[in-house]
Design a protein that fits this description.
Shape: globular
Number of strands: 8
Mean pLDDT: 88
Helix content: 40-55%
Amino acid sequence: MKPATVTPGGKALRLSFEFFPPKTPEGESQLWETAGALSAYDPGFMSVTYGAGGTTKVPTLATVGHLLKMGLPAASHLTCVGATKEETHAVVADFQGVGVKHFVALRGDPPGGVGAPYQPHPGGYANAAELVAGLRGLGFEISVSAYPEKHPQSPDVAADVDMLKRKVDAGATRALTQFFFENDDFERYLERVRKAGISIPIVPGILPVHNLSQVQKFAGMCGATVPGWLADRLGPVDDRPQERAAVAVELAIRQVEDLIARGIDEFHFYTMNRSTLVSAVCDGVGFAKAERSRAAGAAA
């Protein structure tokens, strides 16, 4: 990932953004507008999520292809759950065909959803480390996931860090974390990761809160924690959108600025396919915009 031109505090800071495939024509228009607006911050990449077992293969492929046609550095998530190796390779070929050069390699949630027992597909990749190894020889840039508060299906933090090391040893060059709100949790996790001999960038996932109850639901599914202080700040303004947005932006700015003070120089934003809060956070932190968006006029 190339450095952004922004250097608050004398450091070159780097950004990336995450989207999900839109489900409606209105959602498509919103996503292209969002991607165009956020491209002004010169992100290293914009990733698009992918459902377990290829359940969003077609919309993910279409979304990534459109972003690439807009001239944006699009990356695709890729899961291996519920598929044979041959099926996974066929998906990879489809994405390669539209110009994808960067995958975020994930195991994926079990077909029964988060919390259901995971069973590797017969003839498939057993986990994300095996998937990374399968992609490594094909010349792709490979990012993976990391969990500051532990993956919900890991028996303990040590096993979780061991899995990350296996993914790195297999060829991953960057880890994007699940969202979190307590920077101390991230710092403790980063210390454990470094002690385990993992030296790749561990990029904090930042989620400006659009909807408190939705984030609490997401957190319950992925093993993240919504601290009481955050709920105390956002709960009273939940029915007042402008005030809620202002508080959400303030909290996210504080989180990013504190991480910068701790030496972090790369950030991955979960956008929820909206640019308003993310742009406000980036502006508040001081990330510079290019003179014009690289995607200006290309969203149509």
